[in-house]
Amino acid sequence: MRKLLFLMLVLCFSSLSFAQIEGKWKTIDDNIGKAKSIVEIYKKSDGRYYGKVVKLLITPADPKCSKCTDDRKNTPILGMEVIRGIEKDGSDFDGGTITDPKTGKVYKCTISRDGNKLNVRGYIGFSLLGRTQTWLKVD
């Protein structure tokens, strides 16, 4: 009986953590297919999720976001908050934005988790008009 109870608790907690996006994730460069950076996603006291660059694996030509047009203009990419205001919506996360430090463009963002992968979709207007990157969990 104890083993059964223990197994049920483990399954319950594993399914809860499966849907979470908090933690460190390795981003992959679309052009060269190599790991580009590590982004740490965390939850703030407002209940929303944010993500900042905690490590650069490829040194960019411009280490600052010189093309950003908001409060991140000319701030270093390392430490920059690239995901802002994501909210949990069922098993997905959306309602926030993601910024591409290379271009300075800000996109609406939807995130879904598939095991040790995050599917991060940035888009303008409708979700159909965008692209999805796969980020990998960092242990």
From TrEMBL:
Region forming the signal peptide: 1-19
Pfam assignment, any one: DUF2147
Record-annotated DUF2147 domain positions: 23-136
InterPro entries xref list: DUF2147
Keywords tagged on the record: Signal
Protein's name in the database: Uncharacterized conserved protein, DUF2147 family
